[in-house]
Amino acid sequence: SGDRQFAVPEFAAPLVAGRVALREEKPLPYYVGSYVFSEHSGLYFILGVEHEEEFTLIKELLLSLGYSGIGGKRSSGYGKFELPDDELMLYDDGGVYDDDTAIALMLYNEKSKYQMCLAPVCPKADELAVVKQGSYKLIKRGGFITSSAAKDNIKRNSIYMLQEGSCFPERLRGQMLQQTVDGLAHDVYRDGIGMFVGLKNE
């Protein structure tokens, strides 16, 4: 009886470290924030492909990206990662773990009246009527671009998208956004294509 307390697992913890910039005449202190994963924890993502060669190409790209790093200053060793030895295949008729099967069932459940997006989505103009029937929040996406075509990082224009966790009566296709950025010779892409799971109607 009474309120039950559940321990929330700690998958990662924020870490702030002090640094000193020595490029100016006077040394300037600054702080670098990072996110350190606990042992046996990490990031995962869902990938769907139609052909085996697509999977092979993406795996090779991920291996390469693991050496160079993501989301951090690569010259300081941040953002580097290793892929697990084996991938987990998702099957809706029984997988290795119960959680995997549950995820697969939700991914394939397009008939539920509650479709929740797992990533920010940017709807197309002809999808706005469906958006109005849903429950959603807007999220601002911006940031900087690092490119070999530019000497310094370039700030990109911010855009608003529908936040992950928003629900709609049907799935939105969304769109890939193509942005022109001042000072950059090539366009920059932002993924706004929807990925949804169908929730139980209860």
- State the helix count: 3
- How many extended strands? 11
Q: What radius of gyration results from the CA coordinates? A: 21 Å
The arrangement of helices and strands along the chain is: EEHHEHEEEEEEEE
- Oligomeric state of the chains in view: single chain
Unreliable runs: none
Helix content: 10-25%
Find the structural class using helix and strand composition. Answer: alpha+beta
Major sheet size, sense and barrel closure: 3 strands, antiparallel
Overall shape: it is globular
Task: Give the distance, in angstroms, between the N- and C-terminal Cα atoms.
Answer: 25 Å
Strand content: 25-35%
Enumerate the strands of the largest sheet in spatial order, edge to edge or round the barrel: 8-3-11
Textual characterization of the structure:
By secondary structure, the protein is α+β, with helices and mostly antiparallel strands. Among the domains are: about 10-40, no CATH class; about 110-200, no CATH class. The protein contains 3 helices and 11 strands; from the N terminus they run E-E-H-H-E-H-E-E-E-E-E-E-E-E. The protein has a 3-stranded antiparallel beta sheet. It has a two-stranded antiparallel sheet with strand order 1-2. Strands 4-7 form a two-stranded antiparallel sheet. A hairpin with a 6-residue loop joins strand 1 and strand 2 (about 30-35). The longest helix is centred in the first third of the chain and has 17 residues, at about 50-70. About 10% of the residues are buried.
